[in-house]
Model the fold of this input.
Amino acid sequence: MSGAVYVNGRITSKQEAMISVYDHGFLYGDGVFEGIRVYDGRIFKLEEHLDRLYASARGIMLEIPLDRTDLRRAIIETVRASGLRDAYIRPVISRGPGDLGIDPRKCAHPTVVIIVDAIQLYPREAYERGLRMITATVRRPSPDALNGRVKSLNYLNNILARIEANQAGVEEALMLTGDGVVCECSADNIFIVTRGEVWTPASHLSLLQGITRDTVLGLARDLGMPALEKIFTLYDVYAASECFLTGTGAEVAPVVEVDGRKIGDGRPGPMTGRLIAAFRDLARRTGTPVYAEEAPQRR
Ligand code: PMP
Done:
């Protein structure tokens, strides 16, 4: 079986996996999710993703009906059932089936879904020549609306930004806060290199605090690069010597053009290259083993 889906305790094929149309995840986007990678039979940063999933659920007052040990086990078993060694895992916890009103008190049983499937990646050329992006007109919601740190099923802002990128014929869209400060992209975090320092927007700006972002901040420091969480504007992006994106799917992906302006010399930069190599090395060396024959976790 290629790909497997866990739905409320049962693992099925992706064709058979189903939830109710009364599920408030479907009706209202009322739920949270994660996106996790499996590299060569090992789940990358599983504990960090579990931390963020439970934190997101707390943020929307949703109680995940499995404790951490059981959810971890369900994730590992679903990957095993998929038979995949390189995969994408998508746990989704929704408020569950209710009635047609928004009241979550009508939803007695949250839905737990874990999808394991092949991963869609940027093409290899994107890493060699670099990505192009535009700034979206749609802004990030302010932190006193639904905080962007919650990885919720409400992705419409991001989708609207992605539509702008599609219409402009580029790969990603950069999103600003309501105050015009650089925040994050539609599905990735952004970094710039400026005067030899690595900068990424500070997490209190209502951005998704990416697991890849945090990993790259650590790797940059290990490589002796000053790595800082900052407040900065589009001008800093245009004037940067390098720019790159981070995300579970993208890993570390160079950006060579923003809003029609070349970044640096218009080619993927050297610090970005070192971070791409360091990230790939870490992803292939570490993680929670899925298959019984694997050696215990190496860190
Ligand atoms: N920002 C947004 C809006 C995202 O959806 C994602 C995940 N695709 C990221 C950033 C990157 O987060 P992570 O590194 O945890 O995948």
In short: The mean pLDDT is 96. The domain at 4-117 is CATH 3.30.470.10 (D-amino Acid Aminotransferase; Chain A, domain 1). The pocket of 4'-deoxy-4'-aminopyridoxal-5'-phosphate is lined by residues 35, 158, 184, 187-189, 208, 210-213, 246-248 (CB under 6 Å).
